[in-house]
Each structure stands twice: as C-alpha cells, then as structure tokens.
Amino acid sequence: MYELARELKSRSLEGDVFTRKIRAKEVRYQADRFAGFEIRENEGYGLRVINPEGKIAFYASSSFEESPQAVLERTLAASQYGDRVKFHIPSYPSLVDWENLVDPRVQNIKETEMIELGEYLISRIKEEYPQLLVDLTVAAGLEEKSLFNHHQEKLSYAQTFFQVGVSVNQTKEGDIVEIFSERNWGNRELDLDQFLQDILLKIELSQRISEISSGQYPVVFTPEGSITLLLPLFYGLNGKNIVFGRSPLGEKMNKVIFSPLFSLLERPKEKWALGSCPFDDEGVVTEQEKPLIEAGGLKNCWWDLWSASQKQVPPSGNGFRSSYRDLPQPNFTNLEVKNGLRDRETLIEEIEEGLIVDSVLGLGQSNIAAGYFSCNIHLGFVVRKGEIQGRVKNVMISGNIYQDLKNVKEISRDNRWVGGRMLLPYLLVDPIQVEAKN
Amino acid sequence: MEEVLAELVKLPRAGEYLEIRLEKIRSTRITLQNSVVERIRQEEDQGGYVRVLNPKTSWWFHTFGGWDNLQGRVEEAIRASSTLPASETNVTRGESYREKIEVELEQDFRHQSLDQKIALLAEYSQIMREVSDQIINYTVEYQDRFQEIYLANTDGSIVYLEKPDISLSFTAVAKQGDTLEIYRNGVAGKAGFEKVRGQELLAQEVAKKAVQLLSARSMKGGKYDVILDPVLAGVFIHEAFGHLSESDFLYRNQPLQSIMSLGKPIASPLLSVFDNGNEEGLRGSSPFDDELTPTQKTYLIKNGILSGRLHSRETSFLMRETPTGNARAINYHFSPIVRMTNTGIEAGQQSKEELLQDIDRGLLAVEYLGGNTALELFTFSPSYGYLIEKGQVGEMVKNFVLSGNLFDTLGKIDGVGNDFRWTEVGGCGKGSQIGLATPTGSPHLRLRDVLIGGD
The whole model's pTM is what? Predict the structure, then answer.
C-alpha cells in the first residue's frame, strides 16, 4: 500500500488507504454437540481520493494484484462525480507511547484449547439442566489495521479478540424459551465462572412463567437490556445524522435532556476493551475520555472528518469503518454509563409491581430517529413486592427514549461490559409502557 | 478452472465430503444525499472456501482471499478435519452435475458507465426534493453486484454460476416542529439496469409518504383485528413461520420436532405456505443451492397442515428427509446454512373488500420497517397503517409493532386474499450472514386479536 500512497504523492493528489486484515478461529457446538471448526481470513483495502477540485471517490478491493496506477486511475475517474468535500486527509500523529493490544494467549490459541473450553461450559450447564439444549461458540482472532496517506505517513494498530457465546434452548409444548449470553474481550481474562453463574441464574429464573397486565410500570433494564434505550440515542449522537437534520440532538448541545442521574462517556483507551484504539479509521487521535451526556446534559457527539467539516467543529476521533470496503461513519470506541451507588438487588426490592428486561426482539425496528422503541420482551421477569416471580411471555414494552431517559430513577453500582465495548449498569426507569397479551 | 477443480475434488481418500467454492464479486454502490453524490464505492472481492466433512469427526471450514494454493488448502483441510472431535453427523450425497450457468441481462449494468448511473439517480433526487419543503433529507441508494461462482464437491459436481443483483432505494426524512418521520421504499431484482429505470413515481411516492406520516396519529397499544397488506404478510410468514421450518433449529431438538411434526394441523385451513428456489427470475432463485442440490418448490403448510421443511444436505441426513436445495451462503466468506429462498402464502378466494367487510374496529397494517423472531416469539413493524372502522379504511396511523406467539397467530388467520404478489426488496439475516435476498409473497391476510405495541 506504500506504492499507492507514493502514487498519490507523486501525482499531488490527496487521499488515504485503509487496510484491514482479520484472521479468526471459531469452534461451534450445536444442540450440545461439536458442530465444526472454522478459520476465517479476510483482507482488503479501501482507497479514498480527493481530486484537485476537491471531489471524492472510493474504491475497495480484496485483490492486491492490480497495479497501483490502474487502481488510482479508476478511482480518480469516478471522483469527477463525487461530493465536493470540505475536509482534508490529516497528517498522522506519531504515537510512540501506544502499544498494540495483542494477547499471545488469544492469538496462538489451539483448537484443542477452544474445544476443551466449549466442552467445560456445556457440561457445567448440562449438570444442572440436563434437559436443555446448548449451542455455543468460542472465537478468537487478530485484527490488524493500517492507514497510509498522501504524505506517505503510516499508522498501524493490531488487537486480539476473544468471544464466548452461549444460547440455551428449552422446548416444552406451549413454551419455547431461548436464553442467550455472550462475553467479548481483547484478552483471555474473561471471568468464565461469573459468566456461567449469570447464565445459570437466568435459566433458573426462567423456569416459572408469570403474568402482568397492561399498564405503566417501573422497569429495571439489565446491562444487556439497556441497549433498548441506548440504540436510538446512538442514532441521535451520530454526527452524520445531525448534519442531515435526522437527529433530535442537533440543537440540544449543552442542554439538559435526560435525568441528572444519567451520564454517558466515551473511553477510547480502556485496556483490552474491543473498541479501544489510539486513532480512528481516518487517522484522527482518540481522546483519553470524553463526556457525551453529563448529569443529563448533552456535551459531545460523534464526528468523523466529513460531518465535522460540515458542522465546522473539530473531528472527534470517531470516524470508523465497519470493514475495509466501507467508508468511515461516525461511531463510538468504548462507552460507559456511569454507575450509581446501590446494589442491583436493592433496585428490585423497592418495586411493588414491575419488570426486569434482559433482552428484546425488534430492536431498531421503530422510528429510532425520533427516539421510539417498541419491542417484544425476549427475556424478562415479573417483579412483585420486591421479588422476582418468573419469566414473562407475550409482553411488549414501548416508549420514546427522549422521554423515558428523563425518568431514570436509579442506577446500580454493579456494571459489566456488554459486547466488549460498553460498560453498563442496571437502570431503573419509571414509568415504562407495558402491553400484555392477557 | 473446471479441470483444476475436477482434480481437487478427488483428493479425499477416507470418505470425506469436500466442497470448494471460488468466487469473484464486482459491485458498485452509489449514494446520493440531498442530490449530492455522497458515496461512490466500486469493489472487487475475490476468494474462496474449502469445506470438509469427515464422517468420523466433524466439519472443517476455511475461507480465504485469492485463489492461490488451492491444493495445499484442500490437503490441509482434509488432514486437519481428522483431528476434530466427533459430531455424529453426515450429509446426504447428491448426483454429479457439470453445468455452466451464464445469465444474459436485458441491460447489463456492468456495461453502464458511472455517468449513466449517476445521471439517473440525480433525476430521482430532483423529484424527491420537489415534493415538499418539509423533506429535510432525501437519499437515493443504488447497488449492483455481479457474482461469478465456481462450486465443486466430491460427488463430482462442478458448476459455474453467475448471479446478478441490482437494487435501488429511496429514503425521505420529513420534519415538522419536533416530529421526524422516515419513509423508505425501493426496487430490487435479479436483473439488469432496466430494473431501476422508470421509477419516477416511486421516488415521488416515497417523499409524499414521509410528509403524510407527519400528520398520522400514533397508534395506541392493545388488541385489534388486523389486515396485513401483501408486503407485510410476506414478512410475517417469513419471520414468524419460515425460520421455524429451517431444519437446523430442529434436527436435534426432539421436543421442537414433536411440536413441528409433519402432518399436524398447525394453522387455519385457509393457509398454504411454500418456499420455491426454482421460481423463474426472482432474487432468491437459482438452479442449485450452494451445496449443489437442485432447488425446488417445497410446501411448508398445505391447507393448514404442516407438510414440509427446509434442508441442507446435513439436516436432510440427520432427519432422514430429502434435501430441498435450501443451503445458502451469502458469499465465500461464510459456509452454507439452511435458508429460505422465495417464500410465500398462496392466494385465497377473497377480495380485499371482502376481508375488510366484517371488521368492526381494526387496523390495516402496511409494508414493513423490520421483523424478528426467536422461535415461537415474533415481532414485526409495519411502516404505517390505517384504522378500519365498520369495514371502511380510515385515518392513517403510525408507530406500532405487531407481536405475538406463532402458534396462536397461525390459527387466527380467518381470511386470505386473492391478490398475491411478490416483494423483492430487503434482505434476511441469520447468524452473521446478513442481507441475503429472500423475496416474500402473499395476498392480503386477515388476523383476529393481534397484540399491538403502540405509543
């Protein structure tokens, strides 16, 4: 890719080349049994060129055979139709103090070790619940990213990832339940016994079915369940959506929009979290820590080079590409919802009648731009007089997060990493609209 | 390439089943935001996979970039597969096919210049812009993709397939005060550039609909009699029922097998549901699936009776049923899994007016934003709807979700329209394979007592 960068420079063009290489291994178990081993190798690059008129074009390929001249020629030809951009490809920082987050125990993990781990987890679940069927995946891999620009500067960064996912199925006539849980992290330091305990607790609580009538109730969202409320907010914080007027947050900077208990911050440099990186996928340095929502007030949003230039704000190090074949979009590194002071149990103890929501179906299927959610509860529990009664069936929750996040009443001290990049506590929101079938 | 593959598939010596896929994908994607060409992406992707099932052990799958060192990769896969734990599985073997399936497009999009493509999209943008001042953002997205695929296996089959795909979508965002509405619609097909021409009316319709939604009333939650339009009814049957017919959920789940046992009455006798990977010209169609099983029409429900399910070679072996040609991979980055192709509800007898007639107070739900299932639970979101009062279609409503239990809901279908049509836009996700073309078809469908989550 140096050749492409050199070609850019020699023709006095502005541009960058992003490459990503992933090598991952995965073992799969289906219905308690070993189901296969997979190796994935994927590598490619994306070239952005800004022509002398300031118009941009993009070309991506997984093939490295074509000459840099031909690739550049083709991209340049397309640029005459492109958007006239107001930003410049930045000069890259020198990052002497940054180290790659590569755990050799993940990078060099053997199939046999992954298989042993899978078998251990399944046998522990089956010991307690022999009638359940367990699907499981263990995945491990290495991701390497590089950036080259027309100044012939280069940045690169590598990190490992390790993932364990378990899905438990219990089928009875008239009742099918699926309980899913996963942990992701950059190194091998996953607390698997804690993970097992969480799954076993969910299974135990699911054994009894309990009912609730339609109405408004206090609802405790577990760390996984709180994605229901966060997803529409992510849409709103995206700088591109703000530029196009699709976000309700465009005019709300520094205004109080949520409960003073609710604070959200970005932590790009949390060691071994999966979103960590010294710079974004456009070469902009990520900050140490940055408040997004502080005590309910909007403080920052996510800007890539394009959206920042449109809004005339500095880019925030939030330009990320979902693969080498995609252009950058505003997105986050790692997030934290500030935790509170109380144990999660005490949040539940005070509920006269309400729900706990752990996962939902239908996420993102409403008008999330306007903040709406309306979801079937996939895994959730009825609480009465401070006690968990049992699992709910055929119950929906709905609302608008720009209203409901004003009604955050308590936040737990306990929190955990979700998806390897969101550190989330339990949120008590009151009221939430609940629709029940019965 | 055929000769190379013919030699490679002879390499297994111990009864292993081997598949090789080699693929070249060329695609162009263009996005216009507010009439400006925001994104042009041209892409080439070339690679393949080797998949081995060792009957004494298990599956070994390796996906890689490029087409180099194929013999080394096959030998390594065969060797490595022998070291895996046993999974007591196998595949139903097939016949040996040698075919070269090339497509001829009316207007081949590979021969259209970027200039021509962008000029057309710019016209659509202009049309959307002129609809109303309340349109604050309008997007025209275009994508074409041409896949060239070699598939080979130890049955001696070597097939070359070409798969073209083209899609165009319009998104409009309308705003009034604090109210923000988004509406999207488009066209897609296994077709040439002609598919995306002549869509001026649709572009205009999308922008108008977003504006109309501003003044639509938010729906209140509760239980309603509901008529699904053909688009939504198709999504409903795909999401709520189709996924349960995919045998990879079933093959080792005895309790679920007894719930889903063939011959059992499972739905209203008015309902017949099929999957047909061999329906000419649809996006989900292909002469062969990605395991080189010929595709076919499979009845999943016939007159309310559970009558079939969808198989790969492996689930077919494990459940001792015939393969149905439903093993599909979105591309060489993934292994084939059991998927639907083109899935539909067969037309019934009643006109839409007849379906409306005996609804006192209900809801006509139109098109969809999305859908999701977890076995017996489903939820899906219409784009919008209309209240029905005393058999008459009334006020436009928005922001609601239909949700329920599959087995309850299938029994509640008490009217099937005679106005069947296919919908080709959109894609289905399963596991990490997202965006597979799975057209759905249906007439209007009437359901009683459906749970609606509203505002």
Answer: 0.91
